[in-house]
Amino acid sequence: MLERLNQALDHIESHLDQDINAAELARIAATSEYHLRRLFSALAGMPLSEYVRRRRLTAAGAEVLAGRDSLLEIAVRHGYGSGEGFARAFRAMHGVGPGEARRTGAALVSQPRLAFRLTVEGSSSMRYRVVDRPEFRVVGLKARVPLVHTGPNRAIIDFVRGVEPRLTQALEKLSDQEPQGIVSVCDDLDPSRAEGTELDYYHGVVTSAAAPEGTTVLPVPAGTWAVFTTSGPAPRAVQELWRDVFTQWFPATAYRSRPGPEILRTRLSPDGGEADAELWLPVEREQP
Question: Rounded to 5 degrees, what are φ and ψ at 226?
Fold first, then answer.
């Protein structure tokens, strides 16, 4: 898998002055566009589109300083329809406009070319199982919240704290399928998974029972799920599990992620400092 990802990176490098299509990159990586975006974001720490943009502006910066072509020619070559748009993007990355950079020979920011390598440490094992599930329903309360990669998500914390305890207790009694109990469900995530992009967050249960008044129902189609478990400091253990699944498990298996809700069941220690967690991710087998 990583070899094919690196071939996709080679394609990006050879097409920085041409249109770069995510679907073509997915074809080179022999995976789905959805999984490519998810996997790239986890491995690189930035969305695929952001990496392409930064590599183009790195190449453009070198051409600006070289002084051989006009700024407009450089802008057009790297996909900008106007000098103004190019200048804004250039300044956002380099901290200086292209004209000033050329006049003063300013030091510019560089986005290094990426190459993915798999490091196997062997210090811990990842506990997982793969299950096929018929269609099911999530019933609960819903909010639109920003995506946070590291540390507490204040929007989620405030939303959950605002749920009436009696409603949470009533929902918990309806739980009659795995994962049992109150769950957190993330759905309709932005394909880039960039920090600050929004998603639908559900606080509810997996149940076949009728939805109580005032709650929302999320129908989930039948499919295959990879189920991971972890224990450790909250929320770090869960966020690291999410990271490790995409940086270690997916590259080493014949599965890829598919669109669908991501379900997390968490049990906190009495002081809230430790968590036992079970993460359900929708997956499918890679095509040979």
Answer: -100, 130
Contact 51, 40 (CB under 8 A): yes
Element (H, E) at 133: strand 127-133
Residues of the chain with pLDDT under 70: 118-126, 288
- Among 171, 169, 139, 143, which Cα is nearest to 157's? 143
The two tokens of residue 237 are: 């253990």
Cis peptide before 251 (omega within 30 of 0): no
pTM of the predicted model, to two decimals? 0.76
Angle at 234 between CA 44 and CA 231, to 5 degrees: 90
Burial track 128-151 (b if 16+ CB lie within 10 A, e otherwise): eeeeebeebbbbbbbbebebeeee
CA dihedral for 267, 249, 177, 136, sign (positive or negative) = positive
- List, in sequence order, every residue forming a beta bridge with 226; answer none if it has no partner: 130, 281
265 contacts 180 by C-beta, under 8 angstroms? yes
Among left, alpha and beta (phi > 0; psi -120 to 50; other), residue 196 is left
Interval 144-182: pLDDT, tens: 999 987 778 999 999 999 999 999 999 999 999 999 999
Q: Which two tokens stand for residue 283?
A: 């997956």
Predicted local distance difference test score (pLDDT) of residue 126: 63
Amino acid identity at 169: Q
Separation between Cα atoms, residue 206 and residue 169, nearest integer Å: 14
Judging by beta carbons within 10 Å of its beta carbon (0-12, 13-18, 19+), is residue 271 exposed, middle or buried? exposed
